[in-house]
Amino acid sequence: MGLSYTPTPAIDIHDLERDIYEFCRKLRLAYHFRNNVNTDNSIIKSKSDYCPRRNEDWELENVCMALENTVIRIKEPKDNIRNERKGLSSLMYKVRNGEVVIKPADKGSITVIMDPSYYYNMCLKHLEDINYYTKTDVDPSSIILEQVTDFAKKYQSLLTTKEYDCLLNSKYKLSNIYFLPKLHKSKRIDEIITYQKKEYIHIKDETIVLEGRPISSGPCYFTRGISLIVHEILFPCMNLIDHIVKDTFDFKDRLEKTCTEDTQLCTWDIKAMYNNITHDLFLRSVEYWVLKFQHQLPLMARFTLEFVMEGLTIILKYNYVVIDDIYFSQIKGIAMGAPAAVIGSNLVIAYLEVKMFTRLPDIYPLYFVDYFTRSYFRLLDDVFHKWLEQFNIEDFGKILNDLDPDLTFLLDQIATSVHYLDVQVSIEDNELKFDMYYKPTNAFTYLKFSSCHPSHTRNNIAGSLARRIIQIVSKESNRNNRLMELSNHLLQRSHPIENIDCSFSKVMQPHNQQREGNTICFTRTFNPNHCLDLNLFKSCIDNVKRPQVVKTFKNRSVLLTTRQAPNLKSLLTRAKFVMNPLPREPKKMGLYPCAKCKYCNLGYVKFTTNFSIISKNKRKITWTYTRYFSCDSRNVLYIVKCNHCQDKEVYLGKTDNVKQRIAKHASDVRIPENSTCKKCVCHLRKCSNLIEPYFSFYPFFYVEESGLRHFMERRFINQWKPSLNGQ
């Protein structure tokens, strides 16, 4: 199937309800800040859950209320992996318990399933190299946090309030390091794949030693905020250095197509670039480019060179990673995965290339230097340039490898036809021609048509792949062959031939899609088993009439978008690795009294795995717990049930502290004048005869955000219709 395949997710109405709330929150925010001009230029900020007060405008509130009360229906459940569901569950269990390790290959869209000990040895082979990492015995979290805090306080005057708050108050954790197997670097693996040509290949030869590409960092690591700010400061440099290309299309457009009779094409690879860049070289290179372009970097009007250099020093010096509960400090190289790593590495190699370009006129004729310079391009660690046969390429290799003792440039190819990135570049009749290039390990595991994606996503796969072929391949005969190959690969992935032919015909026509005005997105997790009236959301602001509301949403439209449900990669791969994980304890699910506080001892909270209520319309509703709850739970919805009315008399509410809310309800039963819900307390007072426990208390649903908690309370009240809610 491939790791991009998405199984049909479980039915989760509450997830969709959260999306509805978030959309209504966007509408209220747009109206609340309708007269405000956004002057906030913060690069990083903590996520806000602020929701304006309701009823700022009655017409808008009516729109929001109609959306919030939308009925969600469930279709007859469909499952795109019905026959494989048990196998997937078994594989997920093995991954969780450390019986197997699953990783995507570094290149080629191949999935690799490994024995944990084999994977662990591959990791340790890299991490135990004392030239790159040192092992530390203690958790360095407090040390890194102190450095980040001191940095933020020192440069508080340069940071916005939101940036400063984000650096100080984010929830941090150490980066887990993991490794992607480099199958394409193993000739033995290449031979096996080429010979067997199967979808599944079992290799028992343990003598095959795979290299791994280390990936660390993550959304919550300590220096991520600093790294994001530095990245934004340095990013414009990429457009100011001529020979750095953005992608395949940029390379193809900028490369001169004409060649001389004795032209050859060369490609170079920088060996383990991220790991071999020393911290000193990294800092010197960035300082060079910041000083060179400081007047062309917009954010340098706010930040200083000292801020950039000190921020990078913290990122490099305090790059700690963890694997199998062992801590390592990276003393050489930079973390692949950090935002500043890619742009910083680009600037390092560009800094060395400046030295190279200045040396060339002393060694080669000027006409050749000009010819070479115009054809020299690089994307990260992949270099391409033209060469003339009369000059020795090995001499040029010595120039490259003399630039820095720690970085090695390896000559990959020199010929009249070479592959670079994902294109094959060839010289024919003194002119460059382009074709597609696929690595031998490429499995062509395009997304299967049965994957749980919206129909437009699945239908556009063929078109987007075909458009790439049409834009890259020069000769019409080759282009037709590549399209035929693509069609066969897609047919093997169950794509209908009608969709493929239709997509291919569309991409032959000019493609120009424009969307005017700003949009407000209603984003939901795609689940084909949910049934929702999407037209109600799409047209919700079309018929507003009050001038203020019309003005707010003028030239704005609602865009219906979907987020992807968890695919096999998110279900089966983990960044964290523990060699011998402890046996997983059974997950506690239910309501558990603490047996210590007076409310549990008096019987307000009792152990149960489910509870039942009877609504006003005499419908019996049973709630089965899927999470752990106790009297210490916070930010929950709860049920108060009369102990004498057999599930008929219940009250539904919300609280951020269970114990305080039990105390409040008990106090209100004793003193009804203090209550805002007289109907509830009067009934409980009468039925209990003031003998404790006056009621039973059931927390049952966690909701962290206060605004969302209020929304979910009203949704449950509308659905369950509890008898004691109301005055």
Number of beta strands: 26
Principal-axes shape call: elongated
Distance between the termini: 56 Å
- Major beta sheet, specifics? 4 strands, mixed
* Unreliable sequence segments: none
Structural class: alpha+beta
How much helical structure, as a percent, in the residues?
Answer: 25-40%
Put simply, the count of helices is 26
Name the average pLDDT. 89
Read across the widest sheet, the strand sequence of neighbours is 4-10-9-5
List keywords for this structure.
single chain, 727 residues, alpha+beta, 4-stranded mixed beta sheet, 4-stranded antiparallel beta sheet, 26 helices
Task: Walk me through the structure.
The protein has 727 residues and is of the alpha+beta class. Among the domains are: 455-507; 590-720, no CATH class. Helix content is 39%, strand content 17%. It has 26 helices and 26 strands. A 4-stranded mixed beta sheet has the order 4-10-9-5, with no helix packed on it. Strand 14 (417-420) and strand 15 form a beta hairpin. Helix 17 (455-472) packs across helix 19 (497-507) and helix 18 packs antiparallel against helix 19. The protein starts with 12 loop residues before the first helix and ends in a 7-residue tail after the last helix. The model has no long low-confidence stretch (mean pLDDT 89).
